[in-house]
């Protein structure tokens, strides 16, 4: 009888202990605070928030604007304040600042240019649009293509930026921006398949630049020097100026391919257009 009483007490004690341990584990798990939600404010001693500037809705100034204001006799503080309010779409490199100082721009203005100039351009938003024009009438636009590649090459300092599209892959696939547009004239109904691709791509060297557009059967063109002479003859060249900094960095390439009248899987590069918008 005594043995049964002690056995019952021991079982109750074990049950209570196990339940308490489980409750402890559950409480510890549920009450755990995720990292980054608890802060000790004394750690902020001496901290400062970024300064706020009153910005104008006017377009940013250029280096020529700053030179004109300086030579017109505006006070240094006034020109510096204008740069702060409007910012500067300009080259704020050390070389540029030295040249400005040589032209008589005072140091407070140079300091404002260094602080408030727009970030230097290091990338562009590139959109490439492919138009494939069929033969028209009742004929469908072919989804087949012989081995061929469209290339866009932009020299960038000591390297070449090479962008290519496999014609066979482009025509046989279905893409997120893949539409059929109507290019019908008065005599012949005609459809054009339009594919669009876009990305932000590196482009780091500023100044006068050129873009080469051409087609080739070779998949291994990595630099301008790799372009075969036969492909160079049909290459289209576009010249543009790449500013040191700008409000926008948008470039687009449009290319039109026309289906061969005899061979459905053969396409001809008819024309292309490359342009950029900076402000």
Question: How is this structure best summarized?
Answer:
The chain has 279 residues and is α+β, with helices and mostly antiparallel strands. Helices cover 28% and strands 29% of the residues. The protein has 7 helices and 9 strands.
Set down the secondary structure blueprint:
Layout: H1 2-30, H2 63-71, H3 76-86, H4 94-102, H5 107-116, E1 123-133, E2 149-156, E3 159-166, H6 167-172, E4 178-182, E5 191-202, E6 207-216, H7 229-232, E7 236-242, E8 250-259, E9 267-277
Parallel strand pairs: 1-8
Antiparallel strand pairs: 1-5, 2-3, 2-6, 4-5, 6-7, 8-9
What does the model show?
The protein is of the alpha+beta class and 279 residues long. The chain folds into two domains: 63-116, no CATH class; 123-277, no CATH class. Helix content is 28%, strand content 29%. The protein is built from seven helices and nine strands, in the order H-H-H-H-H-E-E-E-H-E-E-E-H-E-E-E. The chain has helices at residues 2-30, 63-71, 76-86, 94-102, 107-116, 167-172, 229-232, and strands at 123-133, 149-156, 159-166, 178-182, 191-202, 207-216, 236-242, 250-259, 267-277. Strands 4-5-1-8-9 form a five-stranded mixed beta sheet, with no helix packed on it. Strands 3-2-6-7 form a four-stranded antiparallel beta sheet. Helix 3 packs parallel to helix 5. Mean pLDDT is 86; it is low at 13-17 and 20-29.
């Amino acid at each position: 009888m005594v043995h049964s009483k002690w056995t019952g007490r021991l079982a109750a004690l074990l049950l209570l202990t196990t339940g308490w341990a489980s409750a402890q584990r559950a409480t510890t798990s549920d009450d755990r605070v995720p990292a980054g939600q608890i802060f000790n404010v004394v750690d902020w001693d001496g901290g400062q928030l970024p300064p706020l500037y009153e910005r104008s809705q006017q377009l940013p100034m250029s280096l020529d604007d700053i030179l004109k204001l300086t030579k017109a006799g505006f006070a240094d503080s006034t020109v510096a304040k204008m740069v702060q309010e409007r910012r500067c779409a300009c080259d704020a490199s050390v070389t540029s600042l030295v040249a400005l100082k040589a032209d008589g721009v005072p140091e407070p203005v140079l300091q404002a240019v260094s602080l408030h100039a727009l970030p230097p351009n290091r990338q562009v938003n590139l959109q490439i649009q492919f138009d494939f024009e069929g033969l028209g009438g009742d004929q469908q636009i072919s989804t087949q293509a012989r081995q061929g590649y469209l290339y866009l090459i932009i020299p960038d300092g000591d390297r070449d930026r090479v962008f290519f599209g496999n014609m066979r892959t482009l025509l046989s696939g279905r893409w997120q921006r893949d539409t059929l547009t109507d290019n019908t004239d008065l005599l012949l109904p005609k459809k054009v398949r339009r594919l669009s691709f876009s990305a932000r791509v590196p482009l780091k060297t500023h100044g006068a630049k050129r873009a080469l557009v051409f087609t080739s059967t070779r998949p291994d063109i990595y630099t301008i020097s790799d372009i075969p002479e036969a492909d160079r003859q049909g290459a289209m060249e576009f010249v543009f100026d790449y500013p040191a900094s700008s409000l926008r960095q948008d470039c687009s390439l449009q290319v039109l391919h026309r289906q061969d009248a005899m061979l459905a899987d053969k396409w001809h590069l008819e024309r292309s257009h490359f342009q950029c918008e900076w402000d």
